[in-house]
Amino acid sequence: xxxxxxxxxxxxxxxxxxxxxxxxxxxxxxxxxxxxxxxxxxxxxxxxxxxxxxxxxxxxxxxxxxxxxxxxxxxxxxxxxxxxxxxxxxxxxxxxxxxxx
Length: 101
Prior knowledge:
There is one protein chain. It contains four helices and no strands. The chain has one domain. The chain has helices at residues 3-17, 30-44, 52-69, 75-100. The chain has 101 residues and is mostly helical.
């Protein structure tokens, strides 16, 4: 997807190896990654903006859990899953903004 993320994946594999764990390098589908970044953007514009990095992490964990639960899901299915969550956060954030105004 990106040289920096590929290098990070290698570092994660190497660090796991030093802990006697063999893992495959994490890979990000570009469309899924874009949706996770959009989710982080939405989280960064809420009252709890400091949670944006953790929102990204949680979204990544959730995507992997979805892949394990439903191996038949395509990248487009996972993008739609994340898109649904992001849209609900955007709506909630907009509703809160209107209440404050």
